[in-house]
Amino acid sequence: FKFKVKFQKWLKSNPDKTYQDAINAYYELQNSKEKTKIDKQFQYNQYIRDFFEDNDDRTLNDAIKCWKHKKSLKGHNKYEKSDLDVLN
Q1: In angstroms, rounded to a whole number, what is the distance separating the alpha carbons of residues 4 and 78?
Q2: What's the distance, CA 68 to chain centroid?
């Protein structure tokens, strides 16, 4: 069982629905191929997603090293190709 934000939002916006409605919504949301929007407070998650969209041959360890370096710098924490320089 994976409890994702999208399902949590569904639950909050549908308080009068039945458990069966919730189960149906859960499976529908789980099977959806639509990318979810990552809220601003989850910058790490967004960074990791963007990192792997651009570098599917890299490891999670690489992504984390780049993230740690990025967040130590002034400015935004969005992934950029130049973030890979820290791995060299």
Answers
A1: 22
A2: 17
Phi, psi torsion values for 40, nearest 5 degrees: -55, -35
The DSSP call for residue 36 is: P
List, for residues 64-88, the tens digit of each pLDDT value: 999 999 999 999 999 999 999 999 9
Measure the CA–CA gap between 83 and 81, rounded to whole angstroms.
Answer: 5
The DSSP code for 76 is -
10 closest CA partner among 85, 61, 24, 34: 24
Cβ(84)–Cβ(66) below 8 Å: yes
Is 14:21 a contact under the CB 8 Å cutoff? yes
d(CA 83, CA 74) in angstroms, rounded, equals 13
Q: Are 37 and 9 in contact (CB under 8 A)?
A: no
